[in-house]
Amino acid sequence: GAVVSQHPSRVICKSGTSVKIECRSLDFQATTMFWYRQFPKQSLMLMATSNEGSKATYEQGVEKDKFLINHASLTLSTLTVTSAHPEDSSFYICSARGTVDGKLFFGSGTQLSVL
Amino acid sequence: GESVGLHLPTLSVQEGDNSIINCAYSNSASDYFIWYKQESGKGPQFIIDIRSNMDKRQGQRVTVLLNKTVKHLSLQIAATQPGDSAVYFCALGGPGGGNKLTFGTGTQLKVEL
Question: Which of A14, A30, A77, B40 has its CA 20 to 30 A from that of A97?
Fold first, then answer.
């Protein structure tokens, strides 16, 4: 299947700093990528849809100025958590649709811990 | 709004037994259904999918059953192995192919030796 690479896998930062998470489709081009957030023992919640070359579409309740998404190329989308606070600590996961079979493939996730 | 729920938050099975994980959904417009496996600290891994024009699909040791009448989806794992221990999520895609997925709450499958 298609490979989606997410980096970093784990990050610890101080409150008030910004953190960037990268999501790359390694062997296919993805015009659309998705960013999810997952709290411990809970399900994945869609945060936003990242569209190459255009603005991201955010789900209701997700602050677009807080979670900046950039999809500058067909293989890379980034999520920047700006001025992170402890309540932003979570597991962030990206996904992209494979071009061969149309299935969604997920990155390995990024565990963000804000101190 | 759309809701997706699972009947059992935790399922314990003996190694070698068959496992059945269930999922109920409410949006009758959903036409694409997927099961994912998520191990601790990792992203979801695709297991099997089914479209609304089918009621059964089989893969390697896994079978997905779809009952659109009662809006119920199930995942059957044959001869469950320790490596199957994980959280399993059902996910639903809306009309048009499932670009945007709604995930269920998840079932923790524990395989006992």
Answer: B40
Mutation site, A43, A46, A51, A59, interface B, largest B CB count within 10 A: A43
Q: Nearest Cβ partner of B100 from A41, A49, A111?
A: A49
pLDDT digits (tens, 9 = 90+) for A32-82: 899 999 998 889 999 999 888 888 999 999 999 999 999 989 899 999 999
Cis upstream peptide for A40 (omega within 30°): no
